[in-house]
Amino acid sequence: SLAAVHARQGRYNKAMELYQTALAIKGEALGQEHPDYATTLKNMAMVHKALDQWELALPLFQQARSIFATAFHDEHPGVVDAQQGIESCQEALRQQPQLGEEEDNRNPA
Asked: Residues of 74-103 as b/e, b for ≥16 C-beta within 10 angstroms?
């Protein structure tokens, strides 16, 4: 898709704009439980992940996984990819310093 091309080229804002348009169209035409809708959610999550926006990517991966898991078996690539996205976001969020912790470490009392 054109959005994927923009994402691969690092034009994340344009990619996200196109993914949001696609999501609205797919939601209206196919419904929000359709696997194609989930694919777009997962692609949007990947853009957020590329920008280290883990807290925005995580719920999109979770929603995509839920849709894929309902439509397919647990070994389906969509389920597996979304689950890996969830796990990578959770790991990244665990690795982030707590708010203010970094500041405290630079200015010991």
From this structure: eeeebbebbbebbeebeebeeeeeeeeeee
Q: Which residue in 34, 38, 103 sits closest to 64, CA to CA? A: 38
Give CA 93 to chain center in angstroms.
Answer: 14
Closest to 58 measured CA to CA, from 18, 79, 23, 87 = 87
CA distances from 74 to 3, 20, 33, 67 (A): 27, 27, 16, 11
Amino acid type, 64? A
List alpha helices for the chain, DSSP H: 2-8, 12-30, 35-50, 54-71, 77-95, 101-106
Q: What is the pLDDT of residues 9-44, one digit of tens each?
A: 999 999 999 999 999 999 999 999 999 999 999 999
Compute how many other C-beta atoms are within 10 angstroms of the C-beta atom of residue 25: 12
